[in-house]
Amino acid sequence: MKRLAEIIEGQTIFHASASDSVRDVAKMMSDRNVGAVAILDSGRLVGIFSERDLMKRVVAEGLNPEKTKIANV
């Protein structure tokens, strides 16, 4: 089994802050053509936000992406 470091070696890893709005993160993902981003809080990895999270936890739940913070998703 490969280690995470081996899988991501040479890849650009995009990240967002836990305090960013869902809309801002979704826009950044769209602009960079990526399906997921690392979520940091004070420089510490606290999660990963993906297109599936956007659909299932925001859109399907009827949350407002402008007002919802990634930390709440």
Write up what this structure looks like.
The chain is of the alpha+beta class. The protein has 3 helices and 3 strands. It has a 3-stranded mixed sheet with strand order 1-2-3. A hairpin with a 2-residue loop joins β2 and β3. The longest helix has 11 residues. The protein is globular, with a radius of gyration of 13 Å. The model has no long low-confidence stretch (mean pLDDT 94).
Quick structural overview:
By secondary structure, this protein is of the alpha+beta class.
Give the helices and strands, then pairings:
Layout: H1 4-8, E1 15-17, H2 22-32, E2 36-41, E3 44-50, H3 51-59
Q: In angstroms, what separates the terminal alpha carbons?
A: 30 Å
* Low-pLDDT runs: none
Q: Within the largest sheet, what's the order of strands?
A: 1-2-3
Per DSSP, what share of the residues sits in E-state strands of 2 or more residues? 15-25%
Tally of separate helices: 3
Average of the residue pLDDT scores? 94
| Tally of DSSP β-strands | 3
Shape assignment: globular
Radius of gyration over alpha carbons?
13 Å
Q: Order of helices and strands, N to C?
A: HEHEEH
Helix content percent band: 25-40%
Structural class: alpha+beta
Q: How is the biggest beta sheet arranged?
A: 3 strands, mixed
What keyword list fits this structure?
three-stranded mixed beta sheet; globular; alpha+beta; 3 helices; 3 strands; 73 residues
